[in-house]
What does this fold into?
Amino acid sequence: MKLYCSPLDLEFSVVAATVDPARDLLALVELHPPDDPDADEGLWVRIHLIRIFQGCPHWTPHPDAHDPAEQIDFYECTSPFRYYSEVFTLRIAGTRLMLNVGDGIAFSSLYLWDWTTGPLIFERTPEEIWSMQDDLPDSLQLNTDLEGNEPGQWCFGDMLSPDAFITAQYIQTYTSDEQPHREEVFCGIDVFRIGQEARHPSVLHLITLMLPVPVRDFTIKPNIVAGSCSPQPDPRTPFSCDPSSRIIVIDLGDLESPIAPCIVVPQSILIALAEKYDAEDERMKIPWEEWGPQNTRVIETARSGHCLRAFR
It folds into this structure.
């Protein structure tokens, strides 16, 4: 196969990119510039959907895109920490596009939409995670050491298929003696299924796969790391990987630790567990002891966010 590579003449800075070779689709992420004089009017993240051709150095907006320059606005950002500067996940799975963006310090948000029809399918923002404080027991209080601003809130995610995805969310809590404390409501991997509706598809929360209880006072902040998603792999297409060989890495460390434990689990296991409990009337919360030891490996290694290891 002969490939043609050519630089793209762009009028903006690219902070993340991903490609779907089967659709000739290139997705580029542009973030709100930090020196923008109009920053007080609201921050934004823009996704550019570009059509690429083998053997052609030119590019055009993708004809199947509902909006070739999709923009997400953040008009409610009043905290100085709410400048988004890092992309954790940019994933294409069929007509689904997932973006996980954060500031690298204290916040992250997750967005999922159909890039061919436009509507937002799912979102998880710091405001939503903040609202979950009502689920905390009275013995816990939120960490408010950011000089009166909202506490650290993170949400990570990845696609399993065009119709399924996973998320992990974290909000830092403290006990009265100011020691980090694990609260199980924020320490599980949530599996969701997307409905088949053509527009505004429903999202069903199938199961929560609980993570192991940490020893000592180790703080869990689950980050999901994986490689590109290829729902319909083609061996003739570059970078196309069979889903049965895809590995999901769940990083359990905090930002300050260069070495941390992580959970390694085949994507096929997560899909099988979701299908097993899909017929249940109520959302299931599966203890770690019932799904983890026999299906995963827990290893201590360098931070998984610093390197790509998502296929076997």
